[in-house]
Amino acid sequence: QVHIVESGGGLVQAGGSLRLSCAVSGSTGSVNILAWYRQAPGKQRELVASIGAGGSTGHADSVKGRFTISRDNAWPTVYLQMNSLKPEDTAVYYCNAKGISPLGRYDAWGQGIQVTVSS
């Protein structure tokens, strides 16, 4: 079983910064990709940023230049540095892990963490 723990969310004013952390543990086997998604009220969950085990990254157009995903030396732990936050960034942020364990492929989610940006 794969366990994902997110931390670092909270309330911040527009223009401020937050740093989210995602730690993955358990029967992870080989974690191939870690990603951050978010879901705002009444909207579908969307991909924010992803990072591969080799370090390659991708960011949604809506966050490019403001958010940066990075990995800890102790993979699989990743961070999402969020700068110049806007009220429209308000959402529940979820960490997602995709990999292969002895039991097969998995696609695991954390419980989510609230990020609220006030105007």
Instruction: Say how many strands there are.
Output: 11
Q: In terms of structural class, how would the helical and strand content be classed?
A: mainly beta
Distance between the termini: 40 Å
Note the beta-strand portion: over 45%
Largest sheet: 7 strands, mixed
Rg, Å, rounded = 14 Å
Indicate the low-confidence ranges by residue numbers: none
What is this structure's SSE topology?
Layout: E1 2-7, E2 10-13, E3 18-26, E4 30-39, E5 46-52, E6 57-59, E7 67-71, E8 77-82, E9 91-101, E10 104-109, E11 113-118
Parallel strand pairs: 2-11
Antiparallel strand pairs: 1-3, 3-8, 4-5, 4-9, 5-6, 7-8, 9-10, 9-11
Brief digest:
By secondary structure, the chain is mainly beta. The chain is built from no helices and 11 strands.
Summarize the structure in words:
The mean pLDDT is 95. The strands form 2 sheets. Strands 2, 4, 5, 6, 9, 10 and 11 form a 7-stranded mixed β-sheet that branches. This protein has a 4-stranded antiparallel β-sheet with strand order 1-3-8-7, with no helix packed on it. It contains no helices and 11 strands. It is 0% helix and 61% strand. By secondary structure, it is mainly β.
Features of this protein?
four-stranded antiparallel sheet, 119 residues, mainly beta
